[in-house]
Amino acid sequence: MRHFDFTPLYRATVGFDQIADLMDRVLSADTTNNASYPPFNIEKTADDAYRISIAAAGFSDQDLTVEVKENALVVSAQKAETEDAREYLHRGIATRAFERRFHLADHVRVTSASHADGMLHIDLRREIPEALKPRRIDISTQTPALEGSKIS
């Protein structure tokens, strides 16, 4: 994979840091580092609501951690070390530790998280502040009179 240096972009722009960070993060993502574990779904549940569902089979509520850090949702799991004297003939259920990151857009916040039947569900909602919402401006039908001008 090619590596692009965005240092000149950082020096030459003001206010576009998020775009450069996003491009740098996407291009430098390590695709071989367990990119498919654990499997997850992202679904849109309403106009401004989303749900991330992560298959977390074999993990208890105490093993899972959900955190929000600087517009990033970080989901991690660490199985507690136990003295297990079991002898497996086949072990197909992976309970290895993982950390999965999701970059959150502006004004998206995590509203809840639940864990049931081996699935971790994280609900998100986009809440746009009133000052940023579009507003309608009424158009008046009167023309403003110019001072000192006479209409003849």
Question: What's the layout of helices and strands?
Answer:
Elements: H1 7-12, H2 17-27, E1 40-46, E2 49-55, E3 64-69, E4 72-77, E5 98-103, E6 108-116, E7 119-126
Antiparallel strand pairs: 1-2, 2-7, 3-4, 4-5, 6-7
Offer a quick outline of the entry.
This protein has 152 residues and is mainly β. It folds into 2 domains: 1-30, no CATH class; 39-82 and 89-130, Immunoglobulin-like (Sandwich), CATH 2.60.40.790. It has helices spanning 7-12, 17-27, and strands at residues 40-46, 49-55, 64-69, 72-77, 98-103, 108-116, 119-126.
General description of the model:
With 152 residues, this protein is mainly beta. It has two domains: 1-30, no CATH class; 39-82 and 89-130, Sandwich (Immunoglobulin-like). Helices cover 11% and strands 32% of the residues. It has two helices and seven strands; from the N terminus they run H-H-E-E-E-E-E-E-E. The strands form two sheets. The protein has a four-stranded antiparallel β-sheet with strand order 1-2-7-6, with no helix packed on it. It is elongated and about 100 Å long.
Decide which structural class fits the backbone: mainly beta
- How much strand? 25-35%
Q: Report the strand count.
A: 7
- Main sheet makeup: 4 strands, antiparallel
Any low-confidence stretches, pLDDT <50, length ≥5?
Answer: none
Secondary structure: helix percent: 10-25%
| Helix-strand topology string | HHEEEEEEE
Provide mean pLDDT, rounded: 81
Cα(first) to Cα(last) distance is: 75 Å
Number of domains: 2
CATH fold descriptor of the largest domain = Immunoglobulin-like
User: What global shape is seen?
Assistant: elongated
Using the 3D structure, state the CATH architecture of the largest domain.
Answer: Sandwich
The helix count comes to: 2
Q: Which CATH class of the largest domain is shown?
A: Mainly Beta
- Strand order of the biggest β-sheet: 1-2-7-6
Rg: 25 Å
